[in-house]
Amino acid sequence: MSRLQLKNVSKRWGSFVGVDNFDLDIADQEFLVLLGPSGCGKSTTMRMIAGLESVTEGEIWLGEKMVNKLDPKDRDISMVFQSYGLYPNLTVYENIRFPLRVRKVPKEQHREMVMKAIEMVELEEFMDRRPAELSGGQRQRVALGRAIVRKPTVFLMDEPLSNLDAKLRVSTRAQIKNLQSKLKVTTVYVTHDQIEAMTLAERVVVMNSGRIQQVGTPTDIYNDPANTFVASFIGSPAMNLVEGKLQDGLFKGPGIRVEGLPKHASGNVTLGFRAEDAEIVPSGGQIAAPMYSIELLGEASMITWRIGAGLVSVKTNKDYRAEIGDVVEARIPAEICHLFDTASGERIKT
Amino acid sequence: MSNPATKKPMPLVALSIAFIVIWLMIAAFPFLWTMWGSFKVEGDFFSRADWMNAITGPATQLQTGGRFTLEGYYGAWVEQAFWRNALNTLIVVVFTVLISLTLGTLGGYALARSGFKYTFWILMAALVFRAMPHVTLVSGYLLPFFELNIWGHLTTTIVVLVAINQPFTLWMLHSFFLSIPKDLDEAAMVDGCTRFQAFRLAVIPVMWPGVITTGLFSFLLAYNDFTVTAMLLSEENTTMVPQIDSFLGSTQEKGKVMYAVAAVVSAILPLFLLILFFQRQIVSGLTAGAVKG
Amino acid sequence: MPHKTFLAFIWPSLFAMILFIAIPIVSVGFQSLYVEHEQIMIEAENCGPFGCNSEVRVDREAMEQLREEQPAGRFHGLGTYTNPSHLAIDDIREIVATSENFGEIRNRIMNLPFYKALIFTLAYTFIVTPLVIVLGFIIAVVVNSIPNVLKGPVIFFSLLPMIVTPLVGSLVLFWMINSRGILGAALQSIFGDPTLSLTASPALTWVTLFVYGVWHSAPFAFVVFYAGLQTVPRDTLESAMVDGANRLERIRFVVIPYLLPLATFIGLMQLMDNFRIFEPIIGFSAAASATSLSYLIYNDLRLSDTPLFGSAAATSMLTIVGVLILLTPVLRRNWREFNRKPS
């Protein structure tokens, strides 16, 4: 069993809080993604799991063992680094063999294990090259190969795709997903890219300023964001958020009125809806305002208004035509709306 | 490279060339002159009559029958046994460099990788130590060394030179280690290394250029040292630089000054070769500290 | 990195520095409070065929024994610091009281060994350092503009004065400016004065040493600036050109501000190195006209019959105070920068 538990884990440097009370149970063979903006504590959390950073408070359990005091080498994990951490003086083959060498795996098994890993990451032709002679994607695969050459209890991946170009990122993403399901190893994956998180994860942990904001499946997080932070972080484009007042099921904001919302809440609220859920209508819309911009995205067009201090966008079909400054209206039915308390940012449950 | 930013008007080019030529004269001429002169006799190198004598060498012709003479070198190396001093220098320098680098890489690595506050204090203390005039430190050694009866030995001098150069070595290696990504040693530790294995197997193989550059500088510090070697070595253990100084004391005798000239040229030669082969490393080393501020 | 690992890596280096730098400084402070034992005299009767006469001489045995017991000498408190060969408090008081004008005060203070050395050391430090920075910068800018093929050899020869052992370098120059050397002779014929000697007058000796200092250190500044010039952002230079700046304005508004931190670095290194100027004084045999603090210490330890540990230690302590004063701005700046960083 390689279940990974973090029990109320915190990391502080002096008065600076890096990770605050992180509590999570990661099941065997799960693919978990830590998602958040840079500096939110996701990498620190992962480095604590790896043992590269000491834990200020709380406990980390790997299987049936508390590992807080163990050195990285004694934790039986493997990790892929953002800049790969390849040994520049060693060949691809030797790089991948390195963990076996230092872990004193019997010599006669090396060749077979390394070749298997090299096959899985498709680097057969580059075996004798050094990292400097490889492309970014190939280096990334060496790092991956080094991580899978032995079967660890947990894989850790720290933004492994962030140094690749957009096209390569998509194919490598698929490769990682495929490898993980073949190897059946518990995986923790850190990223700031929500698309990576959505496509890879079984469960996503959204973090901000050291705290967990929401834990759930990608669908959960997309459909039911727990607060305005998650709402504004997930989705492309992110959820539209408009501040206003709610009374008797009627939301009023600058240039926007939505009726038929739940009646049990009132006062200052933030209304959220997704650009793809609303639609442009000729008249009778909940938004009626001069258009700020129109952008062609390819499969659709995006209409944007300036509402209050922010921008609100709605997707429409790609043939829609209007001039900047024309009044354009959009229908925003109550069913697609999410309500958040403006002061706390928390979701108002319906 | 014909973009307007790099194109220059003719007068400016001429001026630059003239300036460079003058600077090169100032920088290099004294050495070339002394090297040339070391193959002459004193009457030519220090000619009262005509400075051209140092080039043409009439007195050399007269006294030795040739245009060049090795008298100075013979006097210094054979008669005055300068080879013994050269040997001492070799021993001191080799051991100082090796020990300095060993201690320095370990310490510099620790300073570059630990994020705790005390690293700052250690670096600052090292900066203050580096600024201490060596002679003030030596004045602290003499009495205890006399008492302990360890004064005058090569070993003592090596240990002292290692310690005195340690602040410099630490700073330089520290900044080289900072330029190596942390990912490298962390990857090694996750792969199953202890900290020391990560240092030895993953970091050091990448560090060679930095270690070599630092080694060059600790070579220079040890080779060029006068203060420590002059005060801590006994007569028979003395190295080249203090020996040159003591040649000067005996140069009142005619001809002996050429021993000193020959010895000086002999001492410059290794440095000449050093720059010839390691120019790039020296330049990178001088700037290593600067880049990090 | 945990404390234990850190210590495991750094202890040899730390141990060496504490044992041979920190403790000697403390030991110097301790020694500076002691002076050599007074001579123990005994009277001996010398009887010969022509009667007896008594003679006073040093009792060697008693002295040996005393040295054995108290190797550091006898306790003298701060006496060494205030005596005429160091701070000379009494002499200064007397000079100030009895002199008529400022010029006389200055001249008489300049005759006190410590002040003479201090003033030369400071003059050397604060004259040579800026000159080194300026000359180094000019060389760097010019070398940067010459064709690439020439850069290598030019850098090679430029490095020579810096790399060469200070004592050796100063000797090489000394032999040239010697009245029988090529430069000395040339100067004599230029000025038509056969007795002209750069080493004879104090003023000329000072100038010679300053020139040596600049010659020795300019390559360092040159190399650092030269490397800095390679990293001046091209974009900024080009946008300055688009904005209409001429060559000089580009140097003035783009290059110099960019290289300023390097100038600070060079300045710091030079202050530290120049403050301990020592070897050139020996190389140029200049001790009669110019001495430095380091030279005073060397002189106390080496050139007298028995090493004057107390006197050398007192000068050392005063020198250390000087170094600390010199370093204060640097340490303060580092401290501020360090506090600004998180973690």
UniProtKB/TrEMBL annotation, chain A:
GO (cellular component) term, any one: ATP-binding cassette (ABC) transporter complex, substrate-binding subunit-containing
Extract the InterPro entries matched here: AAA+_ATPase, ABC_transporter-like_ATP-bd, ABC_transporter-like_CS, ABC_transpr_MalK-like, ABC_transpr_MalK/UgpC-like, Mo/tungstate-bd_C_term_dom, NA-bd_OB-fold, OB_MalK-like
Q: Give the keywords, sorted.
A: ATP-binding, Cell membrane, Membrane, Nucleotide-binding, Translocase, Transport
Domain named ABC transporter: residues: 4-234
NCBIfam families per the UniProt record, alphabetical: PRK11650.1
Q: Which family does it belong to?
A: Belongs to the ABC transporter superfamily.
Q: What is this protein called?
A: Sn-glycerol-3-phosphate ABC transporter ATP-binding protein UgpC
The organism named in the record is Psychromarinibacter sediminicola
The UniProt gene name for this protein comes to ugpC
TrEMBL record, chain B:
Which biological process annotations from GO are given for this protein? transmembrane transport
Q: CDD domains from the xrefs?
A: TM_PBP2
Q: What is its main location?
A: membrane
Which family, according to UniProt? Answer: Belongs to the binding-protein-dependent transport system permease family.
**What range does the record give for the signal peptide?**
none
InterPro entries on file: BP-dep_ABC_trans_perm (IPR050901), MetI-like (IPR000515), MetI-like_sf (IPR035906)
Keyword Transmembrane in the entry? The reply is yes
Single GO cellular component term: plasma membrane
Kindly list the places in or outside the cell where this protein is found, as annotated in its UniProt entry.
Cell membrane
Can the keyword Hydrolase be found in this entry's annotation? Answer: no
Membrane topology note? Multi-pass membrane protein
Q: Which residues form the ABC transmembrane type-1 domain?
A: 86-280
Q: What is the official name of this protein in its record?
A: Carbohydrate ABC transporter permease
Provide the alphabetized UniProt keywords.
Answer: Cell membrane, Membrane, Transmembrane, Transmembrane helix, Transport
Q: Where do the TM regions start and end?
A: 12-33, 90-111, 118-146, 158-180, 201-223, 257-278
TrEMBL record, chain C:
The main place the protein resides is membrane
Kindly state a single biological-process term from the GO annotations of this entry.
Answer: transmembrane transport
Annotated GO CC locations? plasma membrane
Output the Pfam families linked to this UniProt entry.
Answer: BPD_transp_1 (PF00528)
Q: Which residues cross the membrane?
A: 6-30, 117-142, 154-175, 251-269, 310-331
Q: Which InterPro entries match?
A: ABC_transporter_permease, MetI-like, MetI-like_sf
Q: Does the keyword Transport apply?
A: yes
Q: Which UniProt keywords apply?
A: Cell membrane, Membrane, Transmembrane, Transmembrane helix, Transport
KW Iron (keyword) present: no
Q: Superkingdom, according to UniProt?
A: Bacteria
The annotated topology with respect to the bilayer is: Multi-pass membrane protein
Gene3D superfamilies recorded for this chain?
MetI-like (1.10.3720.10)
Q: Where in the cell is it found?
A: Cell membrane
ABC transmembrane type-1 domain residues are 118-330
Q: Would you identify the family this protein belongs to, as annotated? A: Belongs to the binding-protein-dependent transport system permease family.
Q: What is this protein called?
A: Sugar ABC transporter permease
Organism in which the protein naturally occurs: Psychromarinibacter sediminicola
Q: What is the lineage of its organism?
A: Bacteria, Pseudomonadati, Pseudomonadota, Alphaproteobacteria, Rhodobacterales
